[in-house]
Amino acid sequence: PGDLVVLDANPGHDVGVVSLAGELVRVQMDRKSSNGDTYDMRKVLRKATQDDVDRWHAARKLEDETMFAARKVVADARLDMKVTDVEYQGDGTKATFYYTSEQRVDFRHILRPLSDRFKVKVEMKQIGARQETGRIGGIGSCGRGLCGSTWLTDFRSVSTSAARYQQLA
């Protein structure tokens, strides 16, 4: 646990941190009632070299700049969507753009400009408002970090009366 490893991704590879090893993995997967065929289970190729780590950090540094530039491209195209986060793959060949929108958005005509500008394969994923706060984070009305970005892993539906009782927007 704690080691950086290179994982198989399609296309290319990604870098990840080992969080559990050995028997703990089986116990945790049984507790979450998960089968081994989940999307997040990736094949570990090797332990990460310094070159892999440097490339991963270089790609991560581009994420904020890419997000702001993507927001400008979306605004110029007058699309009703908000780019909330960008995540680069560990080898820097693919970028996932997370966005929120009230309805479906036809963004096909901005894929080519984004791909040409950043020289990466572009993937767009629509997320909800709760997933957005989970990715970005923030401070709740209690003064602590938002539960969805700190310890809460699954987002169950919440009734409006429960939200009003907790004085949440």
C-alpha end-to-end distance: 38 Å
Mean pLDDT across residues: 84
Strand and helix order? EEHEHEEHEHHH
Q: Work out the strand percent.
A: 15-25%
Please give the radius of gyration in angstroms. 18 Å
Which runs of at least 5 residues are low in confidence (pLDDT < 50)?
none
- Biggest sheet strand line-up: 2-1-3
Q: Helical stretch count?
A: 6
Number of strands: 6
How many strands, which pairing sense, and closed or not: the largest β-sheet?
Answer: 3 strands, antiparallel
Task: Provide a concise account of the structure shown.
Helices cover 38% and strands 20% of the residues. With 169 residues, the chain is an alpha+beta fold.
Report on this model:
The chain has 169 residues and is α+β, with helices and mostly antiparallel strands. It is built from six helices and six strands, in the order ββαβαββαβααα. It has helices at residues 23-31, 50-76, 108-118, 129-136, 147-150, 160-165, and strands spanning 4-8, 13-17, 44-47, 82-88, 94-100, 121-126. Strands 2-1-3 form a three-stranded antiparallel β-sheet, with helices on one face. β1 and β2 (13-17) form a beta hairpin. α2 crosses α3 (108-118). It starts with a strand and ends with a helix. The mean pLDDT is 84.
Which helices and strands, and how do they pair?
Blueprint: E1 4-8, E2 13-17, H1 23-31, E3 44-47, H2 50-76, E4 82-88, E5 94-100, H3 108-118, E6 121-126, H4 129-136, H5 147-150, H6 160-165
Parallel strand pairs: 5-6
Antiparallel strand pairs: 1-2, 1-3, 4-5
Helix pairs in contact: 2-3
